[in-house]
Amino acid sequence: MDIITDSLDRLTALVPPGDTVVHVCTPPASRAAVLTSLAAQGFRRLVVEKPVAGDLDALAAIERLRAEHGLDVVVVTQWLAADLTGRLARLVRSGEHGPLASISVRQDKPRFARASDPAHADAFDVEVPHALAVALTIAGPAELTGAGWTDPHAGPLGGAWLSLRHRSGPQTTIHSDLTSPVRRREITLRLRDTTVVGHYPVSADDHHAQLRVGAGPREVFEDEALGAFLVAAYRYFTGAAAAPPGEFAVHATVVRLLAAARDAARSPGNEPARAH
């Protein structure tokens, strides 16, 4: 049943808070205020778009709401539910090709309309959270080592890059170009004995991923991650299944790394870096 209302304050007159899952799609900048209102009305089961918060203050407010009101927050990061991500994680864990040395992610997708959309402050909000969550899941905790904008003329919504060093040793580089004329969501894992290249689906037009391990054959398989993630989330809230992949702690770390990346990108003398 779809419920439409122009005010959050009227929700409790329309649906029972204890039996309702609320999917929060508001921009990150207003996320904490919306969750505060929902918590005050007794809503506890929430599906929230990524990133879970727009800055560190909002993250702290949401963490307090979780502790004080017992909010159960599932953050939509469908790459964590992707079959491709699962295959990559299992390959690294197996140790078959030696230890992981690095992760490189390229997210190229024209998003010119976003330049006039106040919902996103910069390119770090758009595609990067997906890749960050995957990198943290595969290689573990990390610290930021660098960040910046990809194009000096396009501005903060033209694209962004960041680099990490994981505590376990590997390095990660994420590059997102929102002015690219072509679409690409490519992840490359370099292990001691081989290189693995994966491609996530680039749009809802075709839900197929691709994977190649070393010089082996290219695998193409269906990978409709968003639908799988949302089904898993709602099954979890009904008690029929475990929670979808991606603990809240991972998403909180994503917000902290994004905040550090913004600070680095805005620092004086930080020259925009172009992909080679």
Please bin the fraction of helical residues.
25-40%
Helix/strand structural class: alpha/beta
Briefly note the CATH topology name of the largest domain. Dihydrodipicolinate Reductase, domain 2
Task: Label the overall shape.
Answer: globular
Order of helices and strands: EHEHEHEHEEEEEEEHH
For the sheet with most strands, the description reads: 8 strands, mixed
Name the strands of the widest sheet in spatial order.
5-6-7-4-8-9-10-11
Number of helical segments with 4 or more residues: 6
**Number of domain modules:** 2
Number of beta strands: 11
**Mean pLDDT, all residues:** 92
**Mind telling me the CATH superfamily name of the largest domain?**
Dihydrodipicolinate Reductase, domain 2
Distance between the termini: 50 Å
The assigned CATH architecture of the largest domain is: 2-Layer Sandwich
Strand content: 25-35%
Radius of gyration: 19 Å
Q: What's the quaternary structure here?
A: single chain
Q: Uncertain spans, ≥5 residues at pLDDT below 50? A: none
Protein name: Oxidoreductase
Organism: Amycolatopsis vancoresmycina DSM 44592
InterPro entries: NAD(P)-bd_dom_sf
